[in-house]
Amino acid sequence: KIRFATGDILLLQAREDALQSSLNSLGCLPLASRGLSITTPRNVLLASAIFAITLAIIAIGLVPAATALVTGALVMILVGLIPVGRIYDSIDMSVIVLVAAMLPVGQALETSGGSQLIADALLSVDHSLPPAATLALLMVAVMLISNVVNNAAAAVLAAPVAISLARGMDASVDPFLMAVAIGASCAFLTPIGHQSNTLVMAPGGYRFGDYWRLGLPLSILVVLCAVPAILWIWPL
Fold it and tell me: What is the CB neighbour count within 10 angstroms for residue 189?
């Protein structure tokens, strides 16, 4: 009942060996593969259950996170959720290289004295701002850094800054470290800020500008909600 026009794009689900013949019969031309696959509800539930169990094991502290996650991935392979022949194809090496390359950048900024320089600059601003504004300023600064470097590298860089800032204000370190943790986890403005952003860019067909259009209001919302919650749970 739908009349298609030239230029329409269809998403077809078919076995790989029958896909070409289906395209020929429909008069369609195949586009470049984006690596998308539509699985069965059973597989979705099984994968979700394995992932939930893995997170529960990490949460109760039975095994380290790295061990639990690798074990969960192996279980998915053993139960047939990921074909053995596609194990290496399923690994996005560009994300691994990005994460590995950005960690030394954060360590270099810390050992070069950059963290102390930033802390001194924030302390100079602190004299004219209330503590809540200083905490929000630190969180925003970490958010901006985490959108350029990896979030782990941003946390490595900003944690010494937060500690120095808290000591300079003669305040508790906990709220400042929580601000760093939340800020480093909210890299919504660029596709390179977090590996999850990079992973969905190609399959979703997103452009660089799509991230900050949605990420900017989301980041503002996080700051407005997180700063009062931090000050309530971890007072200065």
Answer: 22
